[in-house]
Specification:
By secondary structure, the protein is an alpha/beta fold. It is built from ten helices and five strands. Pfam families: GerE (PF00196), Response_reg (PF00072).
């Protein structure tokens, strides 16, 4: 903490109104200040290098790359970075990926602004902030539900409505191989058909439209 004891915050969100609102909440506190704002992952990395904020608030959906990728990039050169995800995504996979990348807190947009302030203070103090809906989502993860990178590729194409033949062509693999991947995906997601797989994937954050 610096600037006369204030916690310095970097805000990363691609919606200007959202950034403005979050900044207003933080600036209203006597123990916090916003040092920079950006709407892209590349901007987040650049501004983190420039300002070395105490806390970074990171959205997951950004126009150039995902917030998870931005977290990984920042922590490559600043492993001590204290990053809190602030997003609309509530799926257990989104949460898992963000925490695995190094986020220390996870906030859902729409929570009371007191939760944002509480999260900043807890993470700045060296703790973690995972509200009840987030911990419940994590607890629902199936231990054997991990998908391989190829299975994720197949699932993403399923979500886009592609047939087995179209998936095979897109990934340059045999249609029989696609069928095998789909069977594994259904088993790992604990569903019985492709439609349920798509719904579950979107709910959990395994894929996004």
């Amino acid at each position: 903490m610096s600037e006369a004891g204030k916690t310095r915050v970097l805000i990363v969100d691609d919606h200007p109104i959202m950034r403005y609102g979050v900044a207003a909440i933080i600036q209203a506190r006597t123990d916090m200040s916003v040092v920079a704002q950006t709407g892209t992952a590349a901007g987040a990395v650049e501004l983190f290098r420039e300002h070395t904020p105490d806390i970074t608030l990171m959205d997951l959906r950004l126009p150039d790359m995902s917030g998870v990728e931005a977290i990984r990039e920042i922590r490559r050169f600043a492993p001590q970075a204290r990053i809190i995800v602030l997003t609309t995504y509530e799926g257990d996979e989104d949460i898992h990926q963000a925490l695995a990348a190094g986020a220390r807190g996870y906030l859902i947009k729409g929570m009371p602004h007191e939760a944002l302030i509480d999260a900043i203070r807890k993470v700045q103090a060296g703790g973690r902030f995972l509200p009840a809906p987030v911990t419940r989502a994590l607890a629902s993860r199936l231990p054997d539900g991990e998908l391989s990178s190829r299975e994720r590729e197949v699932l993403n194409l399923l979500v886009r409505g592609k047939s087995n033949r179209e998936i095979a062509e897109a990934l340059s693999i045999k249609e029989a191989t696609v069928k095998s991947h789909v069977s594994v995906i259904l088993m790992r997601l604990n569903v019985t058909d492709r439609t349920q797989a798509v719904i579950t994937a979107l709910q959990r954050g395994l894929a996004h439209l």
